[in-house]
Amino acid sequence: MNSGPLSLLSQSSLQDYVECSLRFKLRYLDRLSYPAVESEPALENEKHQQEGEYFHRLVQQHLIGISAEQIGRLANTPNLERWWSNWQVFRGQQNFGSIYPEVTLSAPLGKYRLVAKYDLLSVNDGKVTIYDWKTYRKRPRNEWLSARMQTRVYRAMLVQAGAHLNNGKPFEPEQVEMIYWFGDFSDDPARFEYTSAQYKRDWDTLLKLADEVESASSYPQTEDRQKCAFCTYRSYCERGVRAGDWNEAETETQAEELFDVNFEQIGEIAF
Ligand code: SF4
């Protein structure tokens, strides 16, 4: 097994840690590759995930200057066509200001470095907006999104490490807003504003988690077996060989996180 020291934390690794510390260990400490498909039907879900990744790349390319016409020609599957068309309408309704697509920010967190990769940051009129594109098949509840590590890490990190986007002055939490835009629910984005009290609570939680990760000496399995149905390590853990059926996913967590796009997985598109 390929164990090695861990130096970076991200919203994904922290999310894994809070959901199942064994999954965190297998994925980030042992670096065990995915031994099983996450859900059935496997091919269909894999295609959806690849399209989601491709869509992120298309939007990024457009934001750095490739014409909408050129992008439109590449959005050549029904999903891509629909998301791209919806995104253009959404963009027309936004007052973007100065835009920073696919920005990475990082800051020390205890003994680690916390890294956050943003789809888009937009600075306008004393306000900074975090945009995150989601190609989920269901619109998650705002309560679910609000509790996600991504929502907490992304806003806190911007306050912590975004001063260079604000003439050298850290953003006040009250200047920050995060918007999740959904390709299939384009008229219903989720918006999360921020306050100093939330920022303090978030950063304290993150510091505490980093300490826990550092001092952990055991990595127990989650007691919530629902989390195992869609976990790639379920055969390793003897928690079922067959993947859960996406259509039967009972919770939003199970259903949505399968289609989350991880930047590290996104390849380049040749134009
Ligand atoms: S199968 Fe269950 S117990 Fe095993 S790593 Fe995945 S979530 Fe944790």
Question: Please, what is the average pLDDT?
Answer: 88
Strand content: 15-25%
General shape: globular
What is the number of E strands?
8
Ligands bound to this protein structure = iron/sulfur cluster
Question: Could you characterize the architecture of this molecule?
Answer:
It is a single chain. The chain is of the alpha/beta class and 271 residues long. The chain is built from 9 helices and 8 strands. The chain has helices spanning 11-19, 21-29, 42-63, 68-74, 78-93, 142-147, 149-161, 196-215, 252-257; strands spanning 8-10, 39-40, 98-109, 112-124, 127-134, 176-182, 190-193, 244-245. Strands 1, 3, 4, 5, 6 and 7 form a 6-stranded mixed β-sheet that branches. The chain has a two-stranded parallel ribbon with strand order 2-8. The protein starts with 7 loop residues before the first strand and ends in a 14-residue tail after the last helix.
Highlighted features:
271 residues, alpha/beta, six-stranded mixed β-sheet, two-stranded parallel sheet, 9 helices, 40% helix, globular, disordered C terminus, binds iron/sulfur cluster
Topology:
Blueprint (H helix, E strand, L loop, with lengths): L7 E3 H9 L1 H9 L9 E2 L1 H22 L4 H7 L3 H16 L4 E12 L2 E13 L2 E8 L7 H6 L1 H13 L14 E7 L7 E4 L2 H20 L28 E2 L6 H6 L14
Bound molecules: iron/sulfur cluster.
Iron/sulfur cluster binds next to α2.
